Amino acid sequence: MSGNTYGKLFTVTTAGESHGPALVAIVDGCPPGLEISLDDLQRDLDRRKPGTSRHTTQRQEADEVEILSGVFEGRTTGCAIGLLIRNTDQKSKDYSAIKDLFRPAHADYTYHHKYGERDYRGGGRSSARETAMRVAAGAIAKKYLASQGIVIRGYMSQLGPIEIPFKTWDSVEQNAFFCPDPDKVPELEAYMDQLRRDQDSVGAKITVVAEGVMPGLGEPIFDRLDAELAHALMSINAVKGVEIGAGFACVAQRGTEHRDELTPDGFLSNNAGGILGGISSGQPIVAHLALKPTSSITTPGRSIDIHGNPVDVITKGRHDPCVGIRATPIAEAMMAIVLMDHLLRHRGQNADVRVSTPVLGQL
Amino acid sequence: MSGNTYGKLFTVTTAGESHGPALVAIVDGCPPGLEISLDDLQRDLDRRKPGTSRHTTQRQEADEVEILSGVFEGRTTGCAIGLLIRNTDQKSKDYSAIKDLFRPAHADYTYHHKYGERDYRGGGRSSARETAMRVAAGAIAKKYLASQGIVIRGYMSQLGPIEIPFKTWDSVEQNAFFCPDPDKVPELEAYMDQLRRDQDSVGAKITVVAEGVMPGLGEPIFDRLDAELAHALMSINAVKGVEIGAGFACVAQRGTEHRDELTPDGFLSNNAGGILGGISSGQPIVAHLALKPTSSITTPGRSIDIHGNPVDVITKGRHDPCVGIRATPIAEAMMAIVLMDHLLRHRGQNADVRVSTPVLGQL
Amino acid sequence: MSGNTYGKLFTVTTAGESHGPALVAIVDGCPPGLEISLDDLQRDLDRRKPGTSRHTTQRQEADEVEILSGVFEGRTTGCAIGLLIRNTDQKSKDYSAIKDLFRPAHADYTYHHKYGERDYRGGGRSSARETAMRVAAGAIAKKYLASQGIVIRGYMSQLGPIEIPFKTWDSVEQNAFFCPDPDKVPELEAYMDQLRRDQDSVGAKITVVAEGVMPGLGEPIFDRLDAELAHALMSINAVKGVEIGAGFACVAQRGTEHRDELTPDGFLSNNAGGILGGISSGQPIVAHLALKPTSSITTPGRSIDIHGNPVDVITKGRHDPCVGIRATPIAEAMMAIVLMDHLLRHRGQNADVRVSTPVLGQL
Amino acid sequence: MSGNTYGKLFTVTTAGESHGPALVAIVDGCPPGLEISLDDLQRDLDRRKPGTSRHTTQRQEADEVEILSGVFEGRTTGCAIGLLIRNTDQKSKDYSAIKDLFRPAHADYTYHHKYGERDYRGGGRSSARETAMRVAAGAIAKKYLASQGIVIRGYMSQLGPIEIPFKTWDSVEQNAFFCPDPDKVPELEAYMDQLRRDQDSVGAKITVVAEGVMPGLGEPIFDRLDAELAHALMSINAVKGVEIGAGFACVAQRGTEHRDELTPDGFLSNNAGGILGGISSGQPIVAHLALKPTSSITTPGRSIDIHGNPVDVITKGRHDPCVGIRATPIAEAMMAIVLMDHLLRHRGQNADVRVSTPVLGQL
């Protein structure tokens, strides 16, 4: 199947380059009758949009989405939904200097070897610009999931060396970092200001949580819910690691410590991150992702050109010094797409199942 | 598509429960003309096999595989390969006591809610027993990849609190832990002996490395090579985290530190873990996975039965106190299946591509 | 995806050659809780089985199926179902003479060019022997569909030049031909007896009908129900044509004649064959398939060997002079698999839909 | 997978309704480096375009396609290709009268029951308008296949009762019918003129031929080349039957007559239609499809409304009296997409295969 499609029943297929005319997506399998408006999509697109604070790239994109099909009189028809976002602020001249060389730690080298051809303008298809369409498609999934009682939210849990323990969802939308602790924001701002002066970039850690997920989602043995989340989240640009629940901390845990005990009142802990045996347990689903520091920085780096000659590369253009800052809505979108797909797959097979057994789910 | 199938061109479909009559797999898409023997499969099956040291479950399974189809006169025909492993040491009586209750941190609760029905004998489909078929299928992939110069090997990089820096591949097959440092083995043995006395279990971290991978494998944007590896590795029982290259360490890295610079002599570092923009770079591909401590322990834990009543659960039967110990061949198999699939997908689309550009790849 | 897998939610993956040790299948996505026994599978296997009359091949195969997984205490668990049928009457010596030559109108030539390798014993994977597994898997689908009120039956509608208008389902299981008119049977027997004396083979036409199908199955625009039926039925060995409803007769029809008018009492005709716009209408689904005369005949035919030299080929061994005679259960199985898959896909997306509009469906 | 996606390595995903803002497609998996221009796409779009003769619908659509991505400096990059066609001549007011009733033999009834929701304007997604995108995507496949020596052409082989034996390709593009015999054209014109006076519609038969196809394409057992062609061709609006080679004629054929004998100079006949055992043989691939008479006619027909009340329906608007007339480019496109996909799948698995055996292929 297409490497540009995600999902099996609820499928998202996208196309579009950083500096081409437009981004486009086809979202298929959405249940009919869902009320959907441009606002539903725009809200999340605006959360991801560049240029809204001094801490992200200064590229200006309205990211206005047009619905081409699949929605009629304000409701989904069940037919494939076409989405279009025109690129409006591409400045190709910024990139011509790097046409024949490989920026270190970019996809230039690998795209060149894979395809022979390369749209070198702003990274082409490898640019994070494509994530706008993930967010638009994810907004449709979120809307349907919300109608089923499922809420998906994310936040920044670490910026470079600064760990950010979760404090309150109320803070997350009140600052440019999706930081869940308002008292941490000045520290983050100071760190980013210094980073820009250093002409450097930094990594970040994002946490995404889905609450209200019914038990039963996930398709063993290969399409376990955690495996699909790992796939979807790792497919986001710059992501180098994914954890579910306790994640790598479980390496040093003992079984007596890790196992989430059950009582008639619910689970007593959530080391599992809401997934047991690859299937949702009814607890909140918790995933963490690590984003690397972007390699588009103005500090020169050693590289080679396409003929193999050594060169020093400075990546100009307009870039995010921390791509993690805008990653929260993207991670939410990918989690929404996965849960949506699995909700439909689950009920396709198991619509008949009736279990008279308590559904737990606290913590 | 089936949740029990992995891959798109090279596909592995499996079935079979812990205490049913047999495990079975159908491996499709293997190139014809590959010399394959039972020994090729048995070698890795034996590395995963239970009961070979005192540190793993005492279940005795020969894990003898039969090739049912797709191989003729010692070579693959290009047709689907059927594989069969009979279960020989299932003791169903061990499990009848837990029929109506949910073992904490097991898949009991989630399988029950998903399907209504449950094969409670030894975990049924959720048991790690199914991984035998991953290993058998992976051995076929490994054999073909080896013919293309690709070698896949893994080792244990952490056992509970004990970190194990890589020292030498020579050590890995010389001990029960796949430990790459012979001097560490006594410490691991002592730790495991104490753990058994404590009636507890512990987590582990495994590292898998593929060397000799050509640049170009991976299908953006959703089927990036790292995303597929995350999917495949996270689908292994007990895995709660996956990292590529620097992984979560990149959160605190700066761009100047993280980026792998290129010179005419090769890459100068490998924070990327051999993957840039979701495509292999020619460097070794490096992945780490975190395995949780198994929840099958004899120390009692709080739980409920299917009627919602509180119970205390002791998991008897024969179990691994550290499932990570036998996970190395499984992780290798899954990495092999992913690389194999992507090698075929890549050449399907890009067989015409000829690039007269140096292939780097050191480190 | 694997060319040996059919279906997207209800998937059937098979492997196995004519003269290898066994046939194997993995059926995934079956709803849990379905009562299934070996008898359910064996009944249809026996209907397809060779050697039950003088009009089919004299190969003796018990075609006894073993269920390896996915069924526990007589009910499906929702996990992948493994099926195994051992080959017991393969006589490989019959075939060694044709190792290096291409039988005319067989798959020998094309398998050789595709794979380079070829299991020449009895056609290997290209033998109709593999259809046993389609029938076994189809029996599971039939059982579930029956629980939803859907009944699938087929009959022979033409044998060579002899057209067989439908008369009664009661006749179909009473003769070796699946002939729906008992008065036609002697004519068919006489024709076949003469055909054997002529050392020749002949084509046939089969009709399959599904009754009780709810409106709504089929996924436009590419996975229309008729398109999937065409795929599934054309994938049966020897099939060269598929029609839905009026089929090729509609070429000469006018719109006023072809269109199936609706009244409050139901449709007035069924030229559509129960499918409008690629979606089931509630009317019976009707498909016809054309099977070619087998090319395995003892009358010599011109061909070449693998070096390009001309040869005369006589195909010995045990063959069906009319492969259409045993095709009815296979066609039923494939229709069942398609409907099953689409029933699950449909409810995955559209489980919420409630329409207060009459369901028609007569004729 | 999405019902709006066709193909596994070369995939075509489409969206768009008859009277919505636009049609859109994403074509993925195209090999990089293929020279492609708007003209390549427009040529076939113009062949399918409505309103070019008095025998087709008078809707005026420029069908101008825009390439949104995947093509850079005139060559494909290997990344997903986005295509957009704006609808320009939708007249929604024509359709409001039929909002609450089901036109006989239309998809109205089935879409209503499947989705609950329905875009009633001009048939919405069920309109043949979507086939424009099949043609645009098919043009890309055709261009690549041509570079491999494969040529795909089609013609009308029957219009209503008038059979049209193949005479010459030269004639096909010289008339509005894709008629391969210039002497037949006046008869076809007269027939159509009378049909319009009768306010009726009629069926047609189209034949598509691929020449220059290498042996080896097709993936047994379910994704046989003939099975996939049947799927793809049956998925075209109004198609009710598909034949490969001799098709239904083989029912009455004997084996001695049907089998295509081989000599060192080539095959002596082509009853197989270029496919043996589901794999291309090197002979021309020949498929026939039957298209039903459109049900959009102004002669009143009995039907019901969504409340179950009887109504008489006259379908106004602008319609094709014979949808078969514009079907030739669509059938070519679908055959091209199938062959393209299978060429890539084949070389993905079998790129290593070298066979020193003559490739036949005459007739």
TrEMBL record, chains A, B, C, D:
Highest taxon, organism lineage: Bacteria
Keywords: Amino-acid biosynthesis, Aromatic amino acid biosynthesis, FAD, Flavoprotein, FMN, Lyase, NADP
CDD domains xref list: Chorismate_synthase (cd07304)
EC number in record: 4.2.3.5
Catalysed reactions, as listed in the record: 5-O-(1-carboxyvinyl)-3-phosphoshikimate = chorismate + phosphate
Subunit and partners: Homotetramer.
Protein's recorded name: Chorismate synthase
Source species of the chain: Pseudomonas fluorescens
Name of the gene encoding the protein in the UniProt record: aroC
